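[09:14] KT: can someone run the structure on this one? pasting the chain below
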Amino acid sequence: MKIAVLVGSLRKDSWTRKVARALEPFMPGFTFDHVEIGHLPLYNQDLETDQPPTEWTRFRDEMRAAQAYLFATPEYNRTIPGALKNAIDVGSRPPGKSSFAGTKPGAVVSVSPGMFGGFGANHHLRQTLVFLDVAVLQQPEMYVNNAAKLFDEHGALADDSAKKLFEKFGAAFAAWAKRFG
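[09:31] RB: done, structure tokens below
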């Protein structure tokens, strides 16, 4: 099963990107397509013509080809970053032709170097995905706090309690995605 991974942080070595990659070994048998979103022009309905920007078309095609979605987001000002919101807007347009249509399974992981694990961003994103008809995994919720302390100097997941959380979440999301596939 092919999972499209959307990481809300554009920074190459972001904690959010590391967390998304660290989840992969806990979901054997799945393939992960990390879909980059930083190159997408801002959504502007004036550009929604017979020939929208090629970046939009490519992104929409990648979303349609996926069998499931994993959204990994940092929290910026108690919500999701603008780049992730823009990607969702691009993928969900034009009206009636959403790339997310078809009730595919999805999951949300929020990441923070602080104590709250991106709680606000996680729930804002879930609210948006429900509207888009993405079947979002409800339990376990995945709030990753103190992200800077989870990885060793080589970028490998080193925290034992985090490994247990990743294992539990990976197994739950794998089972959830298989229900739809």
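[09:33] KT: thanks! The mean pLDDT is 96.
[09:34] RB: yep, looked fine to me
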